[in-house]
Amino acid sequence: MSSGILPIGSALLKGGDVVLHNLADLTLECTPGIYQGGPPGGPPAYFPHADWRRTRSVTPSPVATQQPASPLSRAVTTVCVGPDAVELARRRLLPALSGGAVEERRAALEHVRTSIENLLSRNYGIRCRERGPADCVVNRPGLISTAFDFDSGHFVGLHIDNHQRFPVHRRDSSQILFAVNIGFSHRYLIFAPWTVRGMLSRLGKPTESRSEDTDSVSLKEEYLSAFPREPLFRIRLEPGDAYLCAPQNLIHDGATNDSGSADVALLMSGDYAWSQSR
Questions:
Q1: CB neighbourhood size of 198 (10 A)
Q2: From CA 31, how far away is CA 50, in angstroms rounded?
Q3: pLDDT in tens for each of the 278 residues of the chain?
Q4: Are 144 and 255 spatial neighbours (Cβ–Cβ below 8 Å)?
Q5: Does an H or E element contain 116, and which?
Q6: Of 163, 191, 179, whose CA–CA distance to 253 is shortest?
Q7: Which of 62, 144, 176, 204 lies at 20 to 30 Å from 257 by C-alpha?
């Protein structure tokens, strides 16, 4: 794949400005809107309706091999790292999670990350130009949300990350998350089809500003309150499947499997981008 070329399998999600690069050809589902939860008297928490249905709610690129590639910061991209990478990750990371020393865990993460990022570059033409944090996270099965606020003791639900505390007008420049399912059952990525810039535009707010406002929580709450019937999308990720997205530029959440297996995800952040050639 040459730089600036929209990959085969890419499509613009209907009703949004997010591009889906479904390079792994994963199942896409849609649900018609949200409901509000959260603790009594606490901040609102929003969750997708459970009426998930398989969808073809995409608009394929008219000339897929001649369109400029959408930056990863304005897309959800699926890839598959394969069973060998999953086996390596489990063998190196799971023992380190169950009582290994800090240095042992750090070395295991470095080894597995390098191997999987090399595969990502070789097979999909995506490379990491500058690394951010990485971790391996375990959740219990049956969760409707993987975002938990330990201070309040409640699930956050749909949210926009704020790790770098960028102003909302600069979220296109935020780090990309590369998340790989290394567990033993499926997991889900859930997201709305609009970037922060698109949400600001729909709310009638300026998309260019010198403001240093970093309040993504208020933006998320205002947007979901204004568009409660906003369609949400869900991608099912089997072991070995992975996605890249900009979680600081996207309303999103995760959910775990209903099969009883622990949910295990390898999370890597950084400046991921299309390579010059493939």
A1: 19
A2: 7
A3: 334 444 556 777 877 999 999 999 899 999 999 999 877 777 789 999 999 999 864 544 433 333 446 899 999 999 999 999 999 999 999 998 887 788 889 999 999 999 999 999 999 999 999 999 999 999 999 999 999 888 777 889 999 999 888 887 788 889 999 999 999 999 999 999 999 999 999 999 877 765 666 678 889 999 999 999 989 999 999 999 999 999 999 999 999 999 999 999 999 999 999 986 43
A4: yes
A5: helix 102-124
A6: 191
A7: 176
93 three-class SS: helix
What kind and span of H or E run contains 202?
helix 196-202
Q: Could you tell me the pTM of the whole model?
A: 0.90
250-256 and 154-155 as β-strands: parallel, antiparallel, unpaired? unpaired
Separation between Cα atoms, residue 147 and residue 156, nearest integer Å? 5
Q: Name residue 266's amino acid.
A: L
Question: What are the boundaries of each domain within the chain?
Answer: 10-81+133-272
Report how far residue 131's alpha carbon sits from residue 125's, in angstroms, rounded to the nearest whole number. Answer: 17
194 close to 202: Cβ distance less than 8 angstroms: yes
Give counts: helices (H), strands (E), the chain. 4, 17
Q: How far apart are CA 77 and CA 126, in angstroms?
A: 10
Measure the CA–CA gap between 25 and 192, rounded to whole angstroms. 19
Question: DSSP assignment, residue 246?
Answer: -
Token readout for 79 is 């890839």
Q: Mention every residue, 6+ apart, whose C-beta is less than 8 A from residue 232.
A: 30, 31, 33, 34, 48, 158, 190, 191, 192
